[in-house]
Design brief:
Oligomer: heterodimer
Structural class of chain B: alpha/beta
Structural class of chain A: alpha+beta
Helix content of chain B: 40-55%
Radius of gyration of chain B: 12 Å
Helix content of chain A: 55-70%
Number of strands of chain B: 5
Number of strands of chain A: 7
Radius of gyration of chain A: 28 Å
Distance between the termini of chain B: 28 Å
Strand content of chain B: 25-35%
Number of helices of chain B: 4
Shape of chain B: globular
Strand order of the largest sheet of chain A: 3-4-5-7-6
Shape of chain A: globular
């Protein structure tokens, strides 16, 4: 890997790279995969970004940022840890699973950044264990032990890889608000999964554990709210460390547990003797839902990366996103194959950290991958993680779950909630929570099916998906506005779109674009193209598109692909109209015009 | 359309409010020319109270830039955000016009 980094430095310093000839085809392939620019030629680096994806910071910056990302991601190791606890796995086995997990994170990060063939987005986006597979993982662990967790994780990864190229078409069946609901319920289901640790059959929580939990969660939260700089960024890690210290002082970590850490070597290879796979068809539903949630979340995080790296970003590049999601699915498959408890996903907090620090170079991800790889060969560290006290692990989970649930809520609330969406989300949430509050309601089902159907995640997602399909009946809405040439009132046109957009639940940005399109058009054609009669504006909308057709008697308006020159705009009368046509073309996703019997119809299409 | 006019030292600040379309762009152009002809050639146009700008508005901004240069003056635009920023981007004007993030930066830019 250092050879790769050295090559990058040479490229950064020398402009067009003079690549050393290598006789090794694998190295040449990797070098090409790593060094090809990922951003379109028209991309412009935002001023807030110091190092974009294609930039090469020096090794010190790369190292310090890589360490921060590893610190940020480490909190999510609680997910495999908790799945292991659910099956009472012995400490050495848990340590092995965590070691393998860190190596998987390293591989997942590398395939995301390298871009091998159709795989990998090339963005600085490390892999992390994810809450998406936590609740299904707990079910699998209870039903069939770790082999079933591994087997079902492979299935989920394969499914994510399979849907990656179809994500755009799947939007109809998994709209944004439903993916928000799934993420929200992943948090609820994850917390409910703690029954094995905190439920009636578990050892009662002692007062010392309450104290340790309060200090761990309190310090994480306090540092996040009032902390600054590095302490704030690494608040979860610091909170866990404090939890260990207080737990040791309170006698929750006995000498026998510390002896296990003492006996572990600083360096060593993880064992794979525990690895075995099984499959259970009744678990397909929760893992499929988790897989789709992971795909949607990865797509969202990749979109954040695109926006972060390009000031001219207008809409998601679905090809790049498909590559990234494919890579994410493969990383989860590798997690299952290698035998670690739970799937992985692109790290959204890492994208946030890159945005905050302005350092989004791919080299950072390579450094983070290298650190995780090395940590995977440190049994002492993984043994230390494996003995994490119950109070600390529960606090860490509560901290992580808080962000997941709020993230889900934000995604749901990003949509205008009309009656349909209100029922889709409302009944979905009610159904999911009912499963947790009234678990006996599934007692009539066979026990295997009840274990799955009784999951709040499956119940709420199934209800939401079903209602979403049912409510598509009559979903396409139409509205018409008539504009008299003598009484052009831009405010009336804007009000029309605002009111309709609100009634239809259209996104504000799309409504604004459609509204601007008509107001600017009317202004541009009023004097020259629109000759007589009324102009008819027909707007139609469904979940995925807004179409506006404008009909008037007169000439076509031109929609030039190139912006007219400054001189044309400034000095010629027609310059203003050409500019209007150019802006209207760029304002819409598709533009079409037709002229028949002196009647011109302009069609503007906006993706939603 | 209202235009709030302020003076900060040698700099004149014009703050149009509302919409800049084919009708109001002419009113704004008259206001701008009045200042330029009065010898105020360090000008800042603060667009933070603008809700809509059309191709006619952009044309007037380009004319304003050229007129200021002809008078050996300097022009700065500021207060561009939200929907108006989007319109600057789709018209590809963000690089063509001297845009500053704040009014203070704009004033410093023309001095």
């Amino acid at each position: 890997m250092s050879a790769l980094l050295d090559d990058k430095v040479a490229i950064a310093q020398g402009g067009e790279p003079q690549r050393p000839r290598s006789g090794n085809p694998v190295r040449s392939f990797l070098r090409r995969a790593y060094s090809a620019p990922i951003l379109p030629p028209t991309a412009k680096k935002p001023s807030s970004l110091i190092y974009g994806a294609d930039d090469r910071p020096n090794i010190l910056i790369a190292l310090s940022n890589g360490v921060q990302h590893v610190g940020l991601i480490s909190i999510n190791l609680v997910y495999p840890l908790l799945i292991c606890r659910a099956v009472d796995a012995p400490i050495p086995l848990v340590a092995d699973l965590l070691s393998v997990g860190m190596i998987v994170l390293s591989i997942g990060t590398l395939i995301q950044v390298l871009r091998l063939g159709p795989i990998g987005s090339g963005y600085m986006l490390p892999s992390t264990f994810t809450a998406s597979y936590f609740a299904p993982g707990l079910i699998a662990a209870r039903v069939g032990g770790l082999p079933l967790v591994f087997g079902m994780t492979i299935f989920a990864g394969a499914l994510e890889a399979l849907v990656a190229p179809m994500l755009n078409r799947l939007r109809k069946f998994l709209p944004v608000e439903v993916s928000g609901l799934v993420i929200f319920m992943l948090g609820i289901a994850g917390l409910a999964g703690l029954r094995t640790l905190l439920g009636p059959t578990a050892t009662p929580v002692s007062s010392a554990e309450w104290l340790v939990g309060a200090i761990t969660l309190g310090s994480m939260t306090a540092l996040n709210v009032w902390g600054k700089g590095l302490p704030r960024m690494l608040c979860a890690l610091i909170g866990i460390t404090m939890g260990y210290v207080v737990a040791t002082a309170a006698g929750l970590l006995n000498p026998a547990l510390w002896a296990l850490v003492d006996q572990a070597n600083w360096l060593g290879t993880p064992h794979f003797a525990h690895v075995g796979w099984s499959f259970n068809a009744t678990l397909v539903a929760p893992f499929a839902i988790a897989s789709l949630a992971a795909a949607m979340k990865a797509a969202g995080t990749l979109t954040i990366c695109e926006k972060m790296n390009d000031a001219t970003w207008a809409r998601p590049d679905m090809r790049s996103i498909a590559r990234g999601v494919l890579s994410d699915g493969l990383a989860t498959m590798i997690a299952g194959l290698a035998g670690t408890a739970g799937g992985v996903n692109t790290s959204t907090p890492s994208a946030g950290l890159a945005s905050a620090t302005g350092v989004a170079s791919r080299n950072i991800a390579v450094v983070a991958a290298a650190i995780f790889f090395l940590l995977g060969f440190c049994p002492k560290l993984t043994a230390l993680l494996a003995i994490m006290p119950r109070a600390v692990v529960v606090s860490a989970l509560m901290y992580a779950v808080t962000f997941i649930m709020i993230n889900g809520l934000q995604i749901m609330m990003s949509r205008m909630l009309d009656a349909r969406r209100t029922f889709v989300l409302g009944f979905g949430i009610l159904g999911g929570i009912a499963m947790e509050v009234f678990p006996k309601s599934v007692n009539l089902m066979p026990s295997d099916i009840a274990a799955v159907a009784g999951s709040s995640l499956v119940a709420s997602t199934a209800i939401a998906l079903l209602l979403n399909l049912v409510f598509r009946i009559g979903v396409r809405k139409n509205a018409t506005l008539s504009v008299a040439r003598e009484q052009i009132d831009p405010q009336k046109i804007e009000n029309f779109f605002f009111e309709q957009g609100k009634a239809w639940g259209a996104r504000q940005d799309v409504t604004n674009r459609a509204s601007f399109g008509v107001v600017q058009l009317v202004e541009a054609i009023a004097e020259t193209c629109w000759q007589t009669g009324k102009m008819i504006v027909r707007a139609s909308f469904d979940e995925y598109r807004m179409d506006v057709a404008i009909t008037y008697h007169g000439k076509r308006l031109e929609f030039p692909e190139e912006r007219p020159s400054i001189e044309q705009i400034r000095d010629l009368e027609e310059g203003e109209r050409l500019l209007a046509g150019f802006m209207l073309r760029r304002n819409a996703d598709r533009v079409r015009s037709e002229l028949k019997d002196g009647k011109c119809t302009l069609h503007f299409h906006y993706d939603h | 359309m209202d235009v709030i006019e302020q003076v900060a030292g040698s700099v004149t600040i014009l703050e149009p409010r509302g919409r800049i379309d084919s009708v109001t762009a002419k009113e704004f152009a008259e206001c701008f020319s009045k200042h330029l002809h009065a010898g105020h050639n360090q000008l800042v146009i603060d667009l933070h109270s603008i809700t809509y700008i059309s191709s006619a508005g952009f044309r007037q901004l380009l004319i304003a830039k050229r007129s200021t240069q002809d008078k050996n003056g300097k022009l700065a635009l500021c207060g561009i955000s939200g929907e108006v920023k989007r319109l600057f981007d789709i018209g590809a004007f963000s690089e063509l016009l001297p845009i500053y993030p704040t009014r203070e930066a704009g004033i410093a830019g023309v001095q």
